[in-house]
Each structure stands twice: as C-alpha cells, then as structure tokens.
Amino acid sequence: MRIGIPRALYYYRYFPFWQSFFEDLGCQVVVSDKTTRNTMDVGVSLTVDGLCLPVKVYVGHVSELIDKDIDYLFVPRIISTAKREYICPKFMGLPDIVKNSIKNCPPILAPVVDGRVSSLNIMKAYVKLGMRFAPLPQASFAYLKSVKKQHQYETAAREKNLNNPKNIVFDYLTIGILGHEYLINDDYINMGTMRWLKAANCRIVTMEELTESTINRHVGKLKLKRMFWTSGKRLLGAFHHFRGRVDGIISIAAFSCGTDSLTMDLVERYSCRYHVPHFQLSLDEHTGEAGVITRLEAFLELLIRRKKLEADHAAYG
User: Fold this and answer.
1) Contact assessment for residue 277 and residue 249, using Cβ atoms and an 8 Å cutoff
2) Which fold has domain 160-308?
3) Residue spans in the chain of domains classed CATH 3.40.50.11890
C-alpha cells in the first residue's frame, strides 16, 4: 500500500513517527515535493478565503500527491496532543476541508488524535488505524517503535540547546525564532527567512530545541489564565526562555491564524515590558521575498547598533 503524506503542517513535527509507523506496517510512504509557487497557487484556488496560508498550502500538497498514484491519503484529525490542551480548530476539520476541496480524492486515513484526557487515547487511535494493514501485535509494535523514533528525533533537535556551550558558535548575532514548525521549516512559506539568517552568519535557536519541561516551567511563572492552546503555550514559554539569552527575537506567523492573533499580541506586550528587540513577520499568499529580506536587514542593523553602540539603550522608544 502506498500512503501519501502532504509535506505541510505537522509533517514538520511528526513525520519521523508517521514514517516509522507505516513502514513497520509494510506500507510505502509517499511524500509530496517541497512547497513551490505552484503548490501555493493550487491550494489557494481550491480553498475558501478564510483559511490560513498553511492550510491552503496543505491542500496544494494534497493535490500534488494525487498524481503520485497513492492508495490512501493520511490526514489525521488532530484535536489534542496533551492533557487539557487543544490544537487549532482547523486541524480538527482538516480531513473535511480536504474532502470538500479536492475532487476525486483517494480514501483518507483520518485517525482521531485526542489526548485531552490521556495519551492512551492517542495510542488506541493509531493502533486501530494500524489494524487496517496488520494484526494487532504488529500494529502495537509499530506504534511503540514509532514513539521511540519520534523521541530520538526530538532529542537530536534539542542537542543544540542554548544551555549547551559546546554547540555555541557566536559569529554574529543570536536570534530566537518563534513560530509553528510548518512556518519555520518551509522555505517557500517563510520566504527564505531561515536561509537568509544563516547566510548572514546568525546563530538561530527555535522552539524545537526546548524541552516540554522547560516550556512548562516558564509558562508556569506567568500570571495568566491557563493557556489551553498547545501552540500558544509553546510560543510564550519559548519567548520567556529566549529573553536574556538572545540578541533579538523574530516571530513568524500566518496572517489569518486565529491562535497566533492572541499569542503574538502577548509576545509583543512582553517584548515591550522586558525591552526585548522583537520583529513580527506576518505571512500570506501575497508576501514577497524582497520585502521580507528588506525588513530582516533593517532589524539586524538595529540589533547591531544596539549591541555595539547603544547597549545601554532600551529596545523600544
């Protein structure tokens, strides 16, 4: 069986798990190509205006996968990945969005990933899915092996943590990046932001390098109502870990993202309160790379001036 997985959204976080899971069930994993202008244009043409750019790009990847002769399309219905927390509502309806946007869509594998009460529910959902292709023992083994594979991937990403001095190479500036994985790691959507920062010899640190306990510790210190969005909690926790450890912070957000409209505003307020240089980059299908690079250059110039010439000056005002 050939299982198609779009190279978008939580592909950038859970692909090691998904790939290991399906391959251990004897399936072949087929991934769509990297995002291009055509991918985005197709996604935009097939979806309604109210959807955020990452979901439009996701639909574009699905359209491309159909031409790769797949037997099934994997589109999980993700409700929650942690206790008492939720994911963006668009993830909950993603299988329905795909069905209603794509004509002649192949059969969709849509396990309900809901860990609000217990992570055991997530395991049950994947094992039930696996039993469509293999017996219960093999499906259970595939799940456990995939969890281990995912843990190894996340551990490798955290080896670049700010607290690990042997990995620090300070050539220029240290920049903390806030944003969803599917914005940070998709070079076309972020208009080459990460690539450009690396070319400018900046040291980049992202939320992927932080442990869950580190994020929870920082969020726990805030005098806020419990953040029930997992993405919002991660953004705020990462911001408070980065401040004082980096020269500046860049937030990457999709223009019409509902959760980020709140959490990014909180980040901006905290940036002013703690005098942290902060630059927010809002992306949509009309964003051009030239404009993004111009703004990045201006931000880095201000960071250099503040660091070398005006270290005693506030980041704002």
Assistant:
1) yes
2) Rossmann fold (3.40.50)
3) 2-157
CB atoms within 10 A of CB 278: 23
DSSP 138-182: HHHHHHHHHHHHHHHHHHHHHTT-TT-GGG---SS-EEEEES-HH
Cβ-based burial of 118 (10 A; exposed 0-12, middle 13-18, buried ≥19): exposed
Tokens of 215: 């994020």
Nearest to 80 by CA among 109, 117, 47, 45: 117
Q: Which amino acid is at 39?
A: T
Is residue 275 within 8 A of residue 316, CB to CB? The reply is yes
Burial letters for 177-203: b for 16+ Cβ neighbours within 10 Å, e otherwise? bbbbbbbbbbeebbbbbbebbeeeebb
The residue whose two tokens read 């300070």 is 170
Condensed to tens digits (0 to 9), the pLDDT of residues 150-167 reads 999 988 877 755 444 444
225: which residues sit within 8 A by CB, 6+ positions away?
none
Q: How far apart are CA 237 and CA 241, in angstroms?
A: 6
What pTM does this model have?
0.90
Where on the phi/psi map is residue 257: left (φ > 0), alpha (ψ -120 to 50), or beta? beta
Q: Average the pLDDT over each of 6-15, 257-266, 294-303 and give the range with the smallest value.
A: 257-266
Pair 109, 72: CB distance under 8 Å: yes
Residues in the chain: 317
Two structure tokens written together for 134: 């293999």
What is the CB neighbour count within 10 angstroms for residue 92? 17
Secondary-structure class of domain 2-157 per CATH? alpha beta
Is residue 66 classed exposed, middle or buried when 0-12, 13-18 and 19+ CB atoms within 10 A define those classes? middle
Q: Do 52 and 257 touch, CB atoms closer than 8 A?
A: yes
Element (H, E) at 99: helix 94-101
Give me the mean pLDDT over the 259-263 stretch: 84
